[in-house]
Write a structure and sequence with these properties.
The chain contains nine helices and 15 strands. It is an alpha+beta fold and 294 residues long. It has two domains: 2-116, Probable inorganic polyphosphate/atp-NAD kinase, domain 1 (Rossmann fold); 130-287, Sandwich (Tumour Suppressor Smad4), CATH 2.60.200.40.
Length: 294
C-alpha cells in the first residue's frame, strides 16, 4: 500500500479544506493509498521532519495556498527530504498548482500520484537561506498582499487584493532597481520586479509563457516607470490572459541562474507571497531540486 503524508493548513483560503477532508481520504483509500496527516500551525513546526520519518511516507502532499506550499518546500529543502511533492490548492492564491493544472481535475491527479508520475522542478533560494518555488519580488505593488486584512482575505478571496490595490493607486511610485546578473549591471526605475520560476503569478495564468520550471534558470521581469495609461494597458493585458512579452515596451526581462538585486529605496522582498528579506538580496537557482507529482 502506497503511503502519503498530507500536510494541510486548517485556515488557508476560506478555511474550507477541513470540510473536504473525509472525501479526500476516501479518494485516496479507494486507490489503495494510505494517508497520514500533519496539521500546520503558526509558529513552531520543527516536528515536521520527525513526522515524515515516522509516517514512512512515499510522498508528501501540501493542501493549502501558496504560503503553505512555500512552507513545505522550505521544510523539505532544509531537512534534505527526498520525496515527491503533490499539491491540493485550497488557498486564496494557488499559483503553482494553477501553473501545473492540478486543480482542473483532482480525481485525474490522484490517479497520477498512484502511478508515481513526477517531474523535476527548479527551486530558487534567497540569500542562501529562504527557498521559493514560484516567485520572489519587490516593489510598490508587491506590498499589497501583506496589507490585506486576514478576515477580509478569507471572506473575499482574491477580490480582497484588488480592493486593497485600488486604494493604493494614488501612492504608486517608481523605485530605483539595480540588477547584477550574467556579468552585467543594469539600473532603472521600476514599479516592481518579479523573479519567476513558473509563468503564473497573482492568480494570472499567463504572465510569462517563456518561463520554464525545469530549465535551470529564473526569469526576471520588471515593470519600468511609465505613464498611467501605459501601466493600465499592461495590467489589462495581464488580466485578459495575454501575458507579458519579453521584449514589450516598459518591461525589462532577463534570464539567469543567479541575480544580485539592490535598490536606492527601502524595499522588502516578497517570497511566494510571504514577507522576505529587505534588499539587497542574492537569488540563486537550484536546478531540478525537487520532484513534483504532475
Amino acid at each position: 500500500m502506497k503511503k502519503i503524508l498530507l500536510v494541510y493548513n486548517p485556515v488557508s483560503g476560506h478555511a474550507a479544506f477541513k470540510s473536504k477532508l473525509d472525501s479526500i481520504v476516501e479518494s485516496f483509500q479507494r486507490r489503495n493509498i494510505l494517508l497520514s496527516m500533519y496539521r500546520t500551525r503558526q509558529g513552531d513546526n520543527s516536528d515536521f521532519e520527525e513526522c515524515v520519518n515516522t509516517s514512512h511516507a512515499d510522498g508528501i502532499i501540501a493542501a493549502g495556498g501558496d504560503g503553505t506550499l512555500h512552507a513545505v518546500v522550505n521544510w523539505i529543502m532544509k531537512s534534505k527530504i527526498d520525496l515527491p511533492i503533490g499539491i491540493i490548492g485550497s488557498g486564496t492564491s494557488n499559483d503553482f498548482a494553477t501553473y501545473l493544472g492540478i486543480n482542473d481535475n483532482l480525481d485525474h491527479y490522484f490517479d497520477r500520484i498512484l502511478l508515481n508520475q513526477t517531474r523535476k522542478v527548479d527551486v530558487g533560494v534567497v540569500n542562501d537561506e529562504e527557498y521559493f518555488i514560484n516567485v520572489a519580488s519587490a516593489g510598490v505593488l508587491t506590498s499589497i498582499a501583506h496589507e490585506v486584512n486576514v478576515k477580509l482575505k478569507n471572506a473575499l478571496g482574491k477580490l480582497a487584493y484588488y480592493i486593497q490595490g485600488i486604494g493604493e493607486i494614488p501612492k504608486f511610485k517608481a523605485v530605483t532597481i539595480r540588477v547584477d546578473a550574467n556579468g552585467v549591471n543594469f539600473e532603472f526605475e521600476a514599479f516592481l520586479f518579479i523573479v519567476l520560476n513558473s509563468g503564473t503569478v497573482a492568480g494570472m495564468k499567463k504572465v510569462a509563457d517563456f518561463a520554464e520550471i525545469d530549465d535551470g534558470k529564473l526569469d526576471l521581469l520588471a515593470v519600468k516607470k511609465c505613464s498611467p495609461s501605459s501601466l493600465i494597458k499592461l495590467t489589462r493585458d495581464l488580466f485578459s490572459g495575454k501575458g507579458v512579452q519579453s521584449d514589450a515596451e516598459n518591461v525589462f526581462h532577463m534570464q539567469s541562474k543567479e541575480f544580485y538585486i539592490s535598490s536606492l529605496d527601502d524595499l522588502t522582498s516578497d517570497i511566494d507571497g510571504e514577507v522576505g528579506s529587505p534588499l539587497p538580496i542574492k537569488i540563486d537557482t537550484i536546478p531540478q531540486a525537487l520532484n513534483f507529482f504532475i
